[in-house]
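Async update (no meeting this week)

Hi team, since we skipped the sync, here's where things stand on the single-chain job. The sequence we agreed to prioritize is pasted below, unchanged from the tracker. I ran it this morning and attached the output directly underneath so nobody has to dig for it. Comments welcome in thread, and please keep replies under the output.
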Amino acid sequence: MAKPKTNNTWHRLEFLAVISLILVVGGIFFINQTDFSKLPNNLITGYVSSDIITQKLDLKIDQSQEYLLQTQNSFKLTSLRLSGFIEGQGIVKIFLEDSQGKRLLVYTNIVEKSTGNLITGMTVADVNAITGRAVADVSVDITPDKTNAPLEEEIAENQKISSDPFYNQCVETCFIGVPFSADLTNKLIFQLSKDTKIKITQIFYTIK
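Output:
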């Protein structure tokens, strides 16, 4: 007659419990003793050291136009977001153009009928998730430049045009690295359909 294996089973369970406890305690100790800011390719350090600037604006735009972004400071722009509202039923597109002519989409009011904005995720990111230290001695002057022809663009069948207010929006400018200085001229490019107007109430950006 075979002997019961109850005792051996309990010994195995006790052994596994001890091993699990050792792994948990060791993991906690490792986390507490590790300075993650010194690890390579860390995804957190870049944002902790960023400076946050918010500028209230009363920028009214009633046609396609370019605006110069000029500053007397030297820094790297790491994100840019805009808030405002639209008048009219036309298409709106806003781009950040760097000094080399590369354009990044900041906002568009073209949305998908089923899910909302064409670019999801980053466009609705909470700005409170970006930490850093506020700075008051850095500013960007936004001055009007040349005007352009009205935007003429068709939308797809599964798209529509939104006229809702927008808050802290970024599409391709949520995480960037655009140099700014007194010698460089960057731009905001506003493309508007005919009979469409836009008002920008706030620009939010981070630098380092």
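Quick observations from my side:
Residues 7-37 form one domain.
Confidence is low (pLDDT under 50) at residues 36-49, 118-129.
Reply here if anything looks off.
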